[in-house]
Write the structure tokens for this entry.
Amino acid sequence: MTAEPTPQTEPSPRTPRPAGAYDPRLREAEEFRSRPLGRRLLAPLATLAGTAAAFAYVAAVDPNEPGHYPVCPLLRFTGLYCPGCGGLRSAHAVAHGDLATALGANALAVAGYAVCAVLMAVWLIRVVRGTPTRITLKPAWWWAIGALTALFAVMRNLPFGSALAP
């Protein structure tokens, strides 16, 4: 009787590889570094330009004046604030440097802007250094973000959470 060979499987990222073993992440990093800096900067700078254009538009067209933007469908049909209600007003206030008004319109959105700004800076720094950027979160983090967003949505619609309402 002969033993069947076991199929070769990729070791997990946490499993140490034997010396000289092939690591696809190292190859990807080497390939990334070999690209010219201008090409590496294309994606983060295009993302930054799009974000800046969106904030510039919201800064120029005041969401506090009716008729410029559509009304939130959840608010219109149920009278409940969704987690995004007040997000445009908050972006308008951030663009004008009024942090207190921005936090009053939608504190969760302001926190999101801050997280996005930090991630954008990290992305740009890593690209300039020639390091590929890969942000991976465990499922527990995604569940925590979802729970925080749901809690924010519920709290802002209750009487004792009215300070969170726009």
Q: What stands out?
A: The chain has a mean pLDDT of 85. The two ends are 74 Å apart (CA to CA). The helical segments are 24-34, 37-60, 73-78, 87-95, 99-105, 107-129, 139-155. The chain has seven helices and no strands.
